[in-house]
Structures are given as C-alpha cells and as structure tokens.
Amino acid sequence: MMKNKLINGEVIDNFDFKEPLDFHDFAIDGKITSEIIIMNSRLKQVKGECLEFNTNVRFENCEIESISFHGIKINELFTLKNCVISNFMDLSCSRFEPNENHFIITNNNFNNVVTFEDCNFKSAVEIVGNNFNKGTDLNTVKQLGCYYPVKDSIINNNKGNLKLTEKEECVLWNNIA
User: Fold this and answer.
1) Degrees (nearest 5) of the Cα angle 54, 58, 59?
2) Which of 160, 100, 105 is nearest to 135 (CA)?
3) Both ends of the chain: CA-CA distance in Å?
4) Closest CA to 117 of 53, 163, 175
5) What is the Cα–Cα distance from 120 to 123, expressed in whole angstroms?
6) In 10 A of CB 108, how many CB atoms?
7) What value, to the nearest 5°, has the Cα angle with vertex 112 and ends 62 and 14?
8) Is the dihedral of CA 27, 10, 107, 151 positive or negative?
9) CB under 8 Å, gap of 24 or more: what pairs does 48-56 form?
10) C-alpha 77: how far from its chain's center?
11) Cα–Cα distances in Å, from 143 out to 39, 40, 70, 93, 120?
C-alpha cells in the first residue's frame, strides 16, 4: 500500500516506516519520476544510492535514522526541513542539476556526521539554522570538496563544525555502528 502511494506521488503524512525506505524498490531504469513528499513521519533508514531523481524530494518534520544518498543525481528541488537525523547523512559524490529551485536544508538536527564530499551543486543552496552536532565537511577545503555557487547560496545560522578535517571525519565514520 505504501509502495503504491510513493509510486503515485502521493504525500505520505504521519507514517511509521518499520523497514528501511529503499528508493531502488521504486526506480525504473535507475530513475525516480514520482514526486516524493514525506511529512511528520518516522523512518528507519532512507536509501537511494546512485539513483537519478527527476522529481521533487521533500522530507519535512520527520525523524530519520539515516540517509544514504551517495552518488545520486537530483534534477529538481531537494528539501530537508525540521527533521532529526539520529545517525548519519551521506550525500557524497552527488550531483544537483541547475534549476529554478534550491537545495534546501533548514532547521534540522543532525546527531552524527553529514558528508557532502565531492558534491556538485549547479544551483544555489540554502543551508540555514541547522545543528550539525558532530560536524560536516560542507565548507572543508580538500581535493574532493563540495562545490556550490557561493554568490547565490545562503549558508548561515548553522551550529557545529562546518569544516571537519578529513581525519576528524574519518574518526566519526569509523565510530558509526
């Protein structure tokens, strides 16, 4: 039933996902074409490595154990708003294509590491009012650092270390169960 709602692009509101949410289960030829809107819900894990999202993706007011979106490509709006991520969020090696919208992460509480390593944002990002409890590599200067158009982006009022060193990040990843 929930799978059909996601495939049909229906809003998922106030749902307790008992199993990991793996977007590979909904992909056709590696692509997601139905809008993803999940609100006021609890999710164990969100997985979608190496998929292409040709639609808006929005999580709002959710409790999420972890998000693993390594190597994704998003062609539309990505929003993570007012959520608690209890473990990690991995967006490494992902591409966010140019569009009129932003990549929006606002007012979230991240209880573990958030990695943007080798992310490439072709449109402005809005990363505002988040608490990165264990830090993030968002502004770390390194060989495979994160690229975003600084001129049009809004990154402010965030708490925590936004410039984790590679060594600090490695220690955090090694401690994730």
Assistant:
1) 145
2) 160
3) 31
4) 163
5) 9
6) 23
7) 10
8) positive
9) 48/22, 48/23, 48/24, 48/72, 49/24, 51/23, 51/24, 51/27, 53/23, 53/78, 55/9, 56/101
10) 11
11) 36, 38, 18, 13, 13
> How many CB atoms sit inside 10 A of residue 63's CB?
15
The conformation of residue 6, written as its DSSP 8-state character, comes to H
- The CA distance from 133 to 51, in Å, is 28
pLDDT tens digits for range 20-54: 999 999 899 999 999 999 999 999 999 999 999 99
| Side-chain-facing half-sphere of 134: CA atoms under 13 Å | 19
Instruction: Please tell me the pTM assigned to this model.
Output: 0.91
Distances (CA, A) of 129 to 58, 73, 146, 164: 17, 25, 19, 18
For the record, the structure tokens of 150 come out as: 């600084």
Q: Are 77 and 98 in contact (CB under 8 A)?
A: no
Q: Averaging pLDDT over each range in 7-16, 61-70, 89-98, which range is the top one?
A: 61-70
